[in-house]
Write a structure and sequence with these properties.
single chain, about 425 residues, mainly alpha, Na+/H+ antiporter like fold, 2 domains
């Protein structure tokens, strides 16, 4: 494949993203004011609760079957490794550049989570369509590529909305903002239930001992006073011990709940992933919903229609947030340069080593397209969903937009350079 062809393949999806970002910026300027603060907030909620689950669940149901899950088991591991590698490098970058603590989550998330969905949906079919592609027949390559990209997108969505979401949320708490209003999905870990339990338990214990004492034979006054004093001491000791134990349990629960929102592990995208996998794997359900002759195919078509709105809406939000970033941003030049180096230099090199090692020990197999997708997952720009998360929490919105602008701008060059190298490595 000629270099100019590869350049066009890598440039087109990135250019589309930048153009839609520019539209979002235009809609947010005060004179137009279509994507103001309130509009962006409501649009984020629609993306979070409707568009992303429809995209993830519909794509998985259409393309993933039981056989593909067995043969592609290493992909979830590989994507997890991209997150782990990026997180570690991002944390080091934050320390080196002395990034403000409330932006740690944004920087770590930008280094960890790549755009494993919509960019691959454009790049992989374009590569397959080339006449001298190393991936064989065009139709077979496109079909297999769609399955790979759909699974990649779904797994990435689960990791982003469970892992990156909670990282940005936890570091965002350091800014002093009340982040409980960012999403209606939350857990009340205030400890009131435990406090009530402790009070009721202590009162019941004292009543029980008093009842037992009253049932006994009544002693004289001196004996009664002595027994009563001993009983009070016992009551105080028992009460103090139980309160101490329950207080420790309450403290551990509160500390754990402050670090992670348990309910956020079951986000709408995670639930959609489970549903999509069940539909794709269970043959009777798949025949009811998927295919031109399926009786309930209208459900799948509706989900696909909703899912198509995900990428443009998220990109518009990033562009609208860029307006604040152009005026004032806490992101320095060295921080942006560090993210670019991590995403486009260090991570791809590490990714080549991981995929080659997995192939050597037999985890991946000999499918060159599969290996190519695994490698390119390490070299993509940050996921657009990060912009949605920062918008939900109102933490680092403008900084996120600046990071997205520069990383996607550089992606047109980096993807052009890495794509032919990856293709040469998997075909040699």
């Amino acid at each position: 494949m000629a270099f100019i062809d590869l350049f066009v393949v890598a440039l087109i999806p990135v250019l589309k993203t930048l153009l839609i970002t520019a539209v979002g910026l235009l809609l947010a300027i005060p004179r137009v004011n279509i994507l103001g603060d309130a509009a962006r907030h409501h649009l984020n909620n629609v993306v979070f609760y409707v568009f992303i689950p429809a995209l993830v669940g519909g794509s998985l149901a259409d393309t993933v079957t039981a056989s593909t899950l067995v043969s592609l088991w290493f992909m979830p591991v590989n994507i997890l490794l991209t997150f782990i590698v990026g997180s570690g490098l991002g944390w080091v970058l934050c320390k080196i550049t002395r990034t403000p603590e409330h932006l740690y989550g944004l920087v770590i998330g930008s280094c960890a989570a790549g755009n494993l969905g919509n960019l691959l949906l454009i790049i992989i079919p374009a590569v397959c369509e080339e006449s001298n592609s190393p991936f064989g027949d065009k139709l077979t390559c496109s079909t297999n590529g769609q399955a790979l990209v759909s699974l990649s997108m779904a797994i990435c969505a689960v990791y982003i909305w469970s892992y990156v979401y909670n990282i940005i949320r936890s570091y965002g708490n350091l800014s002093g903002k009340d982040l409980t209003k960012a999403s209606t999905i939350s857990i009340d870990c205030s400890g009131k239930t435990l406090d009530m339990f402790m009070e009721n338990y202590t009162e019941a214990l004292i009543r029980s001992r008093r009842s037992s004492f009253e049932d006994c034979e009544a002693p004289d006054d001196d004996q009664y006073a002595e027994v009563q004093e001993d009983n009070n001491i016992v009551h105080e000791d028992v009460e103090d011990k139980n309160v101490s134990v329950l207080a420790k349990i309450k403290g551990h629960i509160d500390a754990f709940s402050d670090k992670i929102n348990l309910k956020m592990w079951m986000t709408p995208s995670t639930i959609a992933t489970i549903v999509g996998l069940l539909i794709g794997v269970i043959s009777p359900i798949r025949k009811l919903l998927i295919g031109d002759d399926a009786p309930l195919r209208v459900i799948d078509s509706s989900a696909s229609l909703l899912g198509e709105a995900t990428v443009p809406c998220m990109t518009l939000i990033v562009g609208a947030n860029l307006l604040k970033g152009l005026k004032k941003s806490g992101v320095g030049m060295w921080l942006v340069a560090g993210i670019v180096v991590i995403r486009y230099v260090i991570s791809p090199i590490i990714g080549i080593g991981i995929v080659k090692a997995a192939h050597h020990v037999g985890f991946v197999g000999s499918d060159s397209l599969y290996q190519f997708v695994l490698m390119i997952q390490y070299s993509l720009p940050p996921a657009m969903a990060i912009g949605t998360i920062t918008q939900l929490f109102e933490v680092g919105e403008s900084e996120c937009s600046v990071i997205m602008l520069w990383t996607y701008g550089v992606a047109s060059i980096s993807l052009t350079l890495w794509t032919p190298l990856f293709m040469w490595l998997v075909s040699s």
